[in-house]
Structure formats: structure tokens, C-alpha cells
Design a protein that fits this description.
Elements lengths: L2 H10 L3 H24 L2 H5 L7 H11 L5 H4 L10 H20 L4 H19 L4 H13 L19 H23 L9 H8 L5 H6 L4 H15 L11 H20 L5 H9 L5 H5 L3 H6 L2 H17 L21 H13 L20 E9 L6 E2 L22 H6 L29 H10 L12 H6 L4 E11 L2 H7 L3 E14 L20 H6 L2 H9 L4 H4 L9 H16 L9 H11 L2 H27 L19 H14 L1 H9 L5 H6 L2 H4 L1 H6 L1 H18 L9 H17 L2 H8 L19 E3 L5 E3 L2
Antiparallel strand pairs: 1-2, 1-3, 3-4, 5-6
Length: 785
């Protein structure tokens, strides 16, 4: 047999037992890498003295979701114990289980199941939402149904897998690759052909290879983008042609994974993809799929595969980050019940991380530079020192580093901070995590700052704490936003500087230990994001909203099951606080900082937080009255076909109206509760300023932060030089935008906020210094200022 024939046999018709033995061990190896990474970070991130203590969020979940359902909403063994010793032990248990998978033997499938369960437990502590986390959840769950393997050094499995299970893996690769492609290329234009020019340095964590690749001629970069298009759009469909076609597809996917691994740091994504892509080489098992045999011989497995495939099909349109929240969107409340049962079913199983959508990075090319949120600390308030992270570039001399397949969680999360693409964003429900506790008004950088100022994490691997260990916790810290533009190769070699660093503006203003910003770092249900209504209804407040809808006294309900808020607080809220707020213009935020300072001088921290919660509860009780009038026309108002009785633009706008009514005073509120249609006057009078007034009064710094981040995001995503759309395209875009704004009212709120806080009076740290960009003639993004 010649070389060509041997290669054909190896690639197109390899032994199924060998293929699946390697796949199983590849998934186990990926778990091993992930657990090894988590073992050195989990306590520093989620421990009692960590950046985001999991015991705090679990404690809130237990109070806010007191029934047995919380164990299904937030499945984790940490309900039993969440002490640091447990957090420290779990990754090591995962390491042991993954080693059993890698070594092989009869216990390998059970060890794979243990890997999945431990990962599910840690999901509550670490929030495992990156694409490679999602991939590993699915691969581990279905990997537990693969046949056991022989003990090393024999790499093979004891048998070929159930053909239906084999197709789950083949389709997993298809979903990942096509998902990435549809997110990256759908909507792209010729103006976006220079995508890789900016992406190689703008990607979350570039490597030295990526830094150098960015400097290749634009023609080569366009060719590389063409290759990516081919592998991510048409090529995945070769999976449906087992044999030469799918084997070739598998080879090209593997080549792309190796290229991505060299150019960027995406955790263990490439290892996981290399493992599951091998399923495309098992032609015999793929061709053995028989729907009759799947149902007659293995009915339970067949049913599970069918449900999973249908759920994956429904989930596919939503990209990776929306995959965690799309089933919670209020849009589904407008649809007839007969149409929403698939969404309800997927929502029920999502907490167990059984199915995801895949797709990252928008089609628009990024500018050829990085934006970094750099924490700076000082012991005297005069001299400032930048904190350095292990992988994330912060200084001009910080080289891009290789890290993958290790996943440094904090470094990865820090990448999204400077553009405001975090849980604090107005768009949290569009792109966020499963639980509602991320939308706290306190950014991740601010939480890290708190831990640094309190000296709690200086001995961890999260950042370079040598200076803190030598001098003690700093007196004050701040976070500023910088751009890092790659230098030329000659400049890098002569000066040692990889980047040109420019101050873009503030991020988190200077803060000291005990700053009020950290008084309540996690929200209560009445303060969940305006579009997180499903979580609010699931919480203990849902029953109170139902009672308000039935006509019970809201002034009695508002004090039910609420800690540290008294009858005197409620009375003072209506008699003193609301009238005082009403004295200023509610439709103009100019001078709002003075009002905030006056309120903070008059009321102490406890009182202001009590008033904030009272606003939230009163508004939700009125919302419960108004929502049936808003929903009665179903989805028709989205398309201008029919107006609802209470025709608010979106659920978000409906929430704004309820806040506006509270601001109108006690008589107006009581009148709206007695006769909900009386609130129509408020619907006509409400503006974005009046609807969000209470938010800015209670969370001034957080709202200023959002305003700044929205402007920065615009600066780094909206470029001049694009060819104008045709008239037909403009009409289509306008229709889509109108529908989107009726679904996600936060889009209107964002347009309003980005225009606020532009004067010196609202400057909390340094002035903004936003750059501008344009699309060049060759399709690459050029800096203008």
C-alpha cells in the first residue's frame, strides 16, 4: 500500500475506536488544563476574601429565591458548603477526575460525568461563560455517554460510540464554526475587508505572533480573512457528507485552530476544538446512523439527542454572550404561549449548561490598537504606580505573551472593562450572564480595586502584588483608560517598547478603603436591571407584585420582607425625599451633581439605600398593574399593526414610566394604582431624564461611568469613511432599528446617556480624550486624531 493510500485510510476511514479513544482523552485533557488554571485562581476570585466572594451572592440568592426552585435556577454543590477549603478542593477533585479520563479504563465515562458536575458547581463561583467554557460543558456532558477506553498506552476506546452521540459531536463542531462565521461575516461589507489588521492587536489577549502578524501587508491579511470565511461559512456543511468532504473539513478546521492558537490567547478553546473536530474523521460511525435503530435500540439516548439537536437549532441565531440571557428577554412575553414553549423548555434546562449558541466578534473591523483599563495605586495621592497583570498589556514595555491553553480568568475579564462591555452595562440583558447579580453598578475593576485597597489579594496570582507586599495596602487607587498602539518593529527593538500608550480618559475615579461605592456591591430584586423582569418575578418580590395586581395596599406591601427599611423610612420617603427631588427640574440633568451632594448631606447612607429600594418596589407594584395593558396587543405594536391600551415603547420604557409616576408624588402614585390608565398622562410627560432620575440620584458615579463608556464604545466602533448604504438598505436598517428599540428600550436610554455628563462639573477624575478613526482606502482602520 502506497503513502497516498495509507494517508487516505488514516484520514477518511480510521478506526472508530481509535478516534473516539483520542476524543475522550482530548476532552479529559481540556478539563485537566481548565481545572489546573482554576486551582490557582478560584479562591482569589471567589473566596471569602476574593474579588467576588461567592458566599455573598449565594447568600443573596438564598434570601431572594427562598423556595426549592433556586437549586434549579442556580445548580451548584456550593449550596452545601462554599468555604475556601471547598473552593480550593473542587479544582483538585476535577484534576483527579480528568486524569482518570486521560488514563482511561472502565471508570472513564463516570469520571467524565464527574468533570462536568464539578464544572457546573464552579460555574456559580467563577461564571464560566466564555465560548470555550460553553464548549467544554457540552463536550463533557456528552462525553459521559461515550464508551469507556482502554488504559494507556492503548489510546483506543473499547467500542465505537452510539452513532447518534457521534453526531452530537459532529454537529457541535458545525455549530461552533458556523456560529463564529455568521457572527463575524453576516452583515460585513467590502469596507470590512481589513478586519484582521486591527483584530490581531485588538483581540482579547494577543500573542507576540499576533503582534507581528498585524504588520503584514494588507493583501495578505485580506487573504487570511478569506480563508477564515471559507472555513467558517461554507466548510462546516461538509459535516453532512461523511468521508472525503468531512475529513477535508476537519483538516482545515484543525489548521485554523492551530493558527488561532499561535496568534491569540483564547484559553483552552483550541485544545477542546482539536479534540471534538476529530469526530469528523470517523466516517464509519457517522454513516451508521439510523433513526430506526436510535429509537428502537437506545430510546433514551435517541430522545436526548433529538431534544438537544432541536434546542441547539433554536439557540443558533443567538451569539455566545446572548446565549446566556436570550431566553430571559421580555420579547417572549409578547408572543402567544403556543410559540414560546421551545423557549420555555430551553430556559428550564439552561442552568445545567446543556446547549449554547456560538459566535463572537462583530463584522466591523476594530481599530489597530488596544484599549486598556489600567489600575493605578498611590500611598500619598501624588505619586501613582500602574498595576501590572500577568498577561494583559498595561505599560508601553509590556510584551504580548503566550498563555493558552491556560486561562487566566481575571486577565481575560479585564479586556472588556475599558469599553464598558460588562455586567454593569445597560445592555446586560442583551449580552450578560445567567443570573441577575452582575448588574450591580459596581464594575469588575472597582471590585478588584476594593480588594487591593483592603490588602486581601496581594499574595495571589491575579496581579503583580510585589509593591503592595513591600509597602502595605495603598492609600488610594484609581483606574484610567489608555490606548495601546503597537510600535514599529524597529522602535520595539531599539527602545523595548511594544506600545505607544495614550490616556483616553477616566474609568473608576480615585477611591479609598471604605468608599460608599462598595456599600451594596450586589443588587436586590427591586434593583435588578430594568429588563431582568423574569428574575424579579421569580424572586420573592414576584408574589408581592401579584398581590399588588390583585389590589392590596402597596404601602403595606412595600415593607413586607425587606430588611433595614422601616415605617419611618417609608413615611419620610413620601413626605420629605420625593418632594425635595421634585423641586429640581426632572427633565434636565444639568447641575445634577449638586443635587446628589445635597441629598448625601441631608440623608445618611442607610436612608438613601432605603429610599432607593422603596423607589424600586413602588415602581414594580405599579408595573404589575400596567403590564397587562401593555401586553394585551401582543407582538403587533412591534410592527405598527396595533397599539396597546397602554402603549409604552418597550418593557424598559414601561419601567421608566413607573419611576416617573413615583417622582410625581404620593397622590399621583395612589391615583395610578387605583386606576392604571391614569398613568397615561405620565407616559406622555415622561422623558429619559425623568424616567432615570432616581437612578442617577442614587447611583451617580455608576451612571456617569456608563455615560463615559458609551462614548468610548462609539469612538472605537463608529468610523467615518464607510460607503453610504443604498436607499433600500437605509430603509431596511431603519425598520430593523425601530423593532430593536421596541424590544430593547435600553438602546434609547443609551442614546440619552452618552450625551450626558460632558461638563467639567461632572468630571470625577481626568478629562476624556477620545480618538477618532476612519476606514482607509484599503479597508483598514486608520486613526485620525
Amino acid at each position: 500500500m502506497g503513502f497516498v493510500e495509507s494517508l487516505e485510510l488514516a484520514l477518511v476511514y480510521p478506526s472508530p475506536e481509535l478516534v473516539w479513544g483520542i476524543i475522550s482523552r482530548g476532552i479529559g485533557l481540556t478539563y485537566l488544563i481548565s481545572y489546573a488554571s482554576l486551582s490557582v485562581e478560584v479562591v482569589a476570585i471567589a473566596g471569602a476574601n476574593g474579588v467576588f466572594p461567592v458566599r455573598e451572592t449565594l447568600g443573596l440568592m438564598g434570601r431572594h429565591f427562598p423556595t426549592w426552585k433556586r437549586f434549579f435556577y442556580f445548580p451548584t454543590l456550593l449550596w452545601v458548603d462554599c468555604h475556601d477549603a471547598t473552593l480550593r478542593a473542587l479544582p483538585w477533585l476535577g484534576i483527579v477526575a480528568s486524569l482518570f479520563v486521560v488514563v482511561g479504563g472502565p471508570a472513564a465515562p463516570f469520571a467524565m460525568g464527574a468533570c462536568y458536575l464539578i464544572y457546573l458547581t464552579l460555574d456559580r463561583a467563577i461564571i464560566l461563560i466564555y465560548p470555550w467554557d460553553c464548549l467544554l460543558f457540552e463536550a463533557g456532558l456528552w462525553g459521559a455517554l461515550l464508551p469507556s477506553t482502554h488504559v494507556l498506552p492503548d489510546l483506543s476506546a473499547v467500542a465505537a460510540p452510539n452513532p447518534a452521540v457521534a453526531w452530537v459531536f459532529r454537529l457541535l463542531v458545525f455549530r461552533v464554526m458556523l456560529g463564529f462565521g455568521k457572527q463575524k461575516f453576516v452583515g460585513a461589507t467590502p469596507d470590512d475587508s481589513g478586519y484582521l489588521k486591527g483584530f490581531f492587536v485588538n483581540q482579547p489577549l494577543p500573542t507576540p505572533i499576533g503582534w507581528f502578524l498585524q504588520k503584514l501587508p494588507i493583501g495578505l491579511l485580506k487573504g487570511a480573512l478569506g480563508f477564515m470565511f471559507f472555513v467558517e461559512i461554507p466548510l462546516p456543511f461538509t459535516v453532512f457528507f461523511p468521508g472525503y468532504a468531512s475529513a477535508l473539513g476537519g483538516v482545515l478546521v484543525i489548521l485554523l485552530m492551530l493558527a488561532i492558537w499561535g496568534a491569540g490567547t483564547f484559553g483552552y478553546f483550541n485544545i477542546a476544538m482539536l479534540a471534538v473536530t476529530l469526530s469528523w474523521f470517523d466516517t464509519r460511525t457517522a454513516r451508521a446512523l439510523s433513526f430506526h435503530d436510535a429509537w428502537s435500540q437506545h430510546p433514551i439516548v435517541g430522545a436526548l439527542v433529538l431534544v438537544h439537536t432541536l434546542a441547539a437549532l433554536v439557540s443558533f441565531p443567538f451569539n455566545t454572550f446572548s446565549a446566556n440571557t436570550w431566553t430571559l428577554w421580555q420579547l417572549w412575553e409578547r408572543l402567544p404561549g403556543a410559540l414560546t414553549w421551545p423557549i420555555t423548555a430551553i430556559r428550564a434546562i439552561y442552568p445545567f449548561r446543556t446547549v449554547h449558541a456560538y459566535g463572537v466578534f462583530p463584522p466591523k473591523p476594530p481599530p489597530p490598537l488596544r484599549v486598556a483599563a489600567v489600575m493605578e495605586e498611590s500611598w500619598d495621592g501624588v505619586e501613582w504606580f500602574s498595576i501590572e497583570h500577568a498577561v494583559t498589556p498595561t505599560l508601553e514595555t509590556t510584551p504580548p505573551r503566550f498563555c493558552a491553553p491556560r486561562h487566566r480568568r481575571l486577565d481575560q475579564a479585564a479586556v472588556y472593562e475599558p469599553l464598558g462591555l460588562t455586567e454593569e452595562s445597560l445592555f446586560r440583558v442583551v449580552a450578560g450572564r445567567w443570573d441577575p447579580y452582575g448588574h450591580s453598578g459596581v464594575s469588575g475593576a472597582s471590585m478588584l480595586m476594593r480588594a487591593v485597597l483592603e490588602g486581601r489579594i496581594q499574595d495571589t496570582v491575579l496581579y503583580d502584588g510585589a509593591r503592595d507586599r513591600a509597602r502595605g495596602a495603598p492609600l488610594v487607587a484609581r483606574v484610567r483608560t489608555y490606548s495601546l498602539e503597537p510600535t514599529s518593529i524597529d522602535e520595539m527593538r531599539s527602545t523595548g517598547k511594544w506600545w505607544k500608550r495614550t490616556l483616553v480618559g477616566p474609568h473608576v475615579p480615585p477611591r479609598r478603603k471604605g468608599d460608599r461605592a462598595w456599600d451594596h456591591p450586589f443588587p436586590v430584586p427591586e434593583l435588578f436591571h430594568f429588563e431582568d423582569l423574569r428574575w424579579t418575578r421569580r424572586s420573592h418580590l414576584g408574589a408581592l407584585m401579584d398581590r399588588a395586581l390583585r389590589g392590596e395596599d402597596p404601602h403595606a406591601l412595600v415593607l413586607v420582607d425587606i430588611d433595614d427599611v422601616t415605617l419611618a423610612d417609608r413615611d419620610r420617603f413620601w413626605s420629605d425625599f420625593v418632594p425635595r427631588v421634585a423641586r429640581r427640574s426632572r427633565h434636565d440633568w444639568n447641575g445634577i451633581r449638586k443635587t446628589v451632594d445635597e441629598l448625601r448631606d441631608r440623608y445618611d447612607r442607610r436612608e438613601l439605600y432605603a429610599f432607593e429600594r422603596l423607589v424600586g418596589r413602588y415602581a414594580l407594584f405599579l408595573f404589575a398593574k400596567l403590564e397587562p395593558l401593555f401586553l394585551e396587543a401582543g407582538i403587533a405594536p412591534l410592527f405598527g399593526k396595533k397599539a396597546a391600551t397602554f402603549d409604552a415603547k418597550s418593557h424598559y420604557h414601561l419601567r421608566l414610566v413607573t419611576h416617573h409616576v413615583v417622582g410625581d408624588g404620593l397622590d399621583a402614585y395612589d391615583g395610578a394604582m387605583r386606576e392604571p390608565l391614569a398613568a397615561k398622562a405620565a407616559l406622555g410627560a415622561m422623558t429619559m431624564a425623568s424616567g432615570q432620575l432616581f437612578q442617577v440620584l442614587f447611583r451617580y458615579e455608576a451612571v456617569v461611568f456608563q455615560s463615559q463608556k458609551l462614548r468610548i464604545l462609539d469612538a472605537y466602533t463608529e468610523f467615518s469613511g464607510r460607503r453610504p448604504p443604498t436607499e433600500k438598505q437605509r430603509e431596511g436598517l431603519a425598520r430593523f432599528d425601530d423593532i430593536a428599540r421596541h424590544v430593547f428600550g435600553a438602546l434609547d436610554a443609551a442614546d440619552f446617556l452618552k450625551k450626558q455628563f460632558t461638563t467639567e462639573d461632572d468630571q470625577l477624575d481626568c478629562p476624556e480624550n477620545l480618538p477618532s478613526f476612519r476606514i482607509g482606502p484599503d479597508g483598514s482602520v486608520e486613526r485620525v486624531t
